[in-house]
Amino acid sequence: MNAAASLSPDERRAARRIVARRWALRSLSGIAALTALILLLAYWLLTTIGGRDVLLRQVVARLPDGTTLTWRNADGPAAGPLTLHDVRFVHRSCPDKDGEPVAFGVCEHPDALIFTARRAVLDPAI
Fold this sequence. Notes:
alpha+beta
């Protein structure tokens, strides 16, 4: 005979509460651990040189086609002040055709916007 079948309704209800409480505590522990991990990762990204380098590589990787961002060296964490030396930003785009935008790489003579600076200081208020 099944052990659950021999329990009274009150005993089954109590057993379900115990199981539900156990799942709630495990879920809460998992959420707390995940939150701590996310906060630790954010702290590492914003306050360390390694984290800064990861963030800068991600910025460059997410630039649209025809756009480049380069610098000679970087000083300071991403949380600031972050100083980039010998910055060069180049954005190439195709001119509009009949009032409609044209994707980069399709035109013969792309337009170019070039920005250079000896030093760019970024100090975000995080």
